[in-house]
Amino acid sequence: MEKKTIVQRHQVNFETLVKAFKAKRVALVECYDTQLKERVAVICAVNEDDAGVSFAPFARFFNGNPYDLLLSPQQVDEMGGRSVDAADN
Known about the structure:
Elements: H1 6-9, H2 11-22, E1 26-33, E2 38-49, E3 52-60, H3 66-69, H4 73-78
Antiparallel strand pairs: 1-2, 2-3
């Protein structure tokens, strides 16, 4: 079985999020990140049924400059590290 990249593993969630935006069923919600120990802004799909409203978290905004926090797989390779695509899935 061919290993999927991290982007391929998230494709279904991304497509669900696109559908939620098209249907105007999204909300920006403040949550608490238990690992980072800080408040974060989260994009949620909004679900409504007879039981009420629920929020499904799909994406999180960065606190700070994402260019200071992230490296592309190419940048990792240039630094002599292992590429994200080469990681075991």
